[in-house]
Amino acid sequence: MKNQNAGKSIRMLLMNEGTLSRRFRNFNITLFAIAFVVIMVSMLLVFNSINRRISFDFARSYGVSTANALSAHIDKEIGFLAKAARSESVIEWLTDEDNPDKKAQAYKEMAEILRELYSGNLYIGIEKSRREYMITEDYTLEDIVPFAHLAPDYPGDAWYFHTIESENDYWLNVDVDRVLDRKRVWLNYKIVKDGVPIGVLCNGLEFPHVAKELFALSDDLRARGFIINENGLVLIDSVLLSDEHFMHDPMEIHADEAIDDRVLLAAIQSHLDRIDGFYDGTAAPVLVHPLSRQYRYATITPIMHTKWSVVTMYDPSLLLGMSRFLPAFAVVLLLLVAVIMATNAFSYRLIFMPLELLVRSLSALKENHDVKIYGLERDDEFGSLSTTISDLFNKANHDAMTGVYNRRFLETTIQQNMDFLSRSNGLLSIVMVDVDFFKLYNDHYGHQEGDNCLKAVAKAMAGSVGRTSDFVARYGGEEFIAVLPNTDETGAVMIANNILENVRELKIPHDKSTVAGHVTVSVGVSTGKVSFPQNWKEYIKRADDALYRSKQNGRNRFTYFRFLE
Q1: Contact 472/495 with Cβ under 8 angstroms?
Q2: 306, 75 contact by CB (below 8 A)
Q3: Which range among 29-33, 84-88, 531-535 has the greatest average pLDDT?
Q4: Which residues are tagged catalytic?
Q5: Distance, CA of 161 to CA of 292 (rounded, Å)
Q6: Which of 236, 125, 147, 123 lies closest to 183, judged by CA?
Q7: SS3 of 544, please?
Q8: What pLDDT, in 10s, does the model give residues 427-437?
């Protein structure tokens, strides 16, 4: 029955025109209906617009993205190789190759870098001995032995001697890995000491992975891509990616052997003639109109930080097909952004701004326990939520009988205060209060009157502290504590006197007290500078010691102890 009533209440709340949920739903339904009609009409109009510029833009964009993809691969791997090449441990080993300790330290360094590299092996050539080493992920230190001697007249070692002789820090080439029998894009980084080359680090990117990722659009043969070096040699041809001979043999193909369009070849040659060092960010792609009927558009795009370029040829149907959707996509995107912005603006004012204010007030409540929770005066869902949170907060942090804060709140808040005060060695004062002969009072007048007595004392204590940062909490039984941040001895003593006088003025009869005919309290006060290692329990212990001294000296008084730092 209760569940049925709850469900009915929820349904009635949702049907209420004034609720947030219904207003938000109605607004979005209306807004998206209008947006849908506008989008459909716009798409019908835009699909009739096809132009050559869009085709060129797509061609340029694809060429640049292809070049940037390889450039990103290279930059990342070159960064790791540079880290190894500049390592003192690696340099020391290359200058003292047969030293086992230096070799072990260099291996440790390179093994860590190897885990970051894309591929799982690293080649090292040493200039002094012309020995070649290899490290793989599963190698141990004992496996690091020379496996070849580098010879200037051997084509397979050209990678090493080209890098040593290069004016740049690194040199790139495509060749077959003689050990693993796989074609790779090789990154060769020069190791230098005191301006003199002492060796080369070499790492290879997997050729099939790089090639297929770069020329994913070429799968349907409506586009064909090449990567050529500064000499016009074809390093990668998207049409030959499935050719085992091309993928595994160190064959060389020149651009004029792979491309039969003289206009494009002339553009490529003109582009190659302008190469002067590695490309930087100023090198722009070249757009070409080939004579070929199959490929009507082509781009030549430099690959940054290399002397390589990407040549891509496009079937016009591919570009024109794409261009039909680009304007429509732009319009749809703009409309969608407009819808989202409008929805967000409305949602923010209706939901998220009040929620933010509520969250801010709750955050401020952690620092200042007198902060008012936002939304208590609202008559919508936020009002209900704020009221519930306020009730839960009060139940969780206030003593149910006396109304002052409970011990849980005390322990949490005093720790926050100490964390804040420890940054500036601020002062913290603790006032501990105990009702004199409360057990006798309880036994004589009964528990109900005992509870009333504690409520009155708690109210008197709360009225004795004035600042919003100060607070009173019930510590347990008839004991209460006042926490006074940034309060010195004078201020703490004044609060203690206020508490004594305010309790005396209650004039609550206490026939069993040997101190006075009415209820009195004993007070212990302690003040100290807060520093990081201190614990809040130490401050309470010091105030408790002072309270004990007050009881020893006759009660109905306060005793001040400075905190022992």
Answers
A1: no
A2: no
A3: 84-88
A4: 478
A5: 40
A6: 236
A7: helix
A8: 999 999 999 99
Paired tokens of 168: 């740049």
**Domains, in order of start, for the chain:** 54-69+209-319 (3.30.450), 72-206 (3.30.450.20), 398-562 (3.30.70.270)
Name the token pair of 468: 């919003």
Q: Which two tokens mark 54? A: 């869009």
Residues 182, 184: Cα–Cα separation, whole Å: 6
Q: What is the pTM of this model?
A: 0.45
- Tokens 């720790």 found at: 415
CB 183 within 8 Å of CB 175: yes
Q: Give the list of residues 6+ apart from residue 208 with CB closer than 8 angstroms, or none.
A: 183, 241, 247
Yes or no: say if 406 and 397 are a contact pair by the CB < 8 Å rule.
yes
C-alpha to C-alpha distance for 339 and 345, rounded to whole angstroms:
10
- Opening angle at CA 354, ends 3 and 381, nearest 5: 20
d(CA 221, CA 235) in angstroms, rounded, equals 19
C-alpha distances out from residue 38 to 34, 44, 53, 430, Å: 6, 10, 26, 68
Q: Is the pLDDT of residue 70 over 80?
A: no
- Is residue 153 a contact partner of residue 165, using CB atoms and an 8 Å limit? no
> Could you tell me how many residues make up the chain?
565
User: pLDDT digits over 380-390, tens only?
Assistant: 877 888 888 77
pLDDT band for position 135 (cuts 50, 70, 90)? confident
CA-based nearest residue to 519, from 475, 429, 458, 563:
458
Rg of the chain in Å (alpha carbons): 41
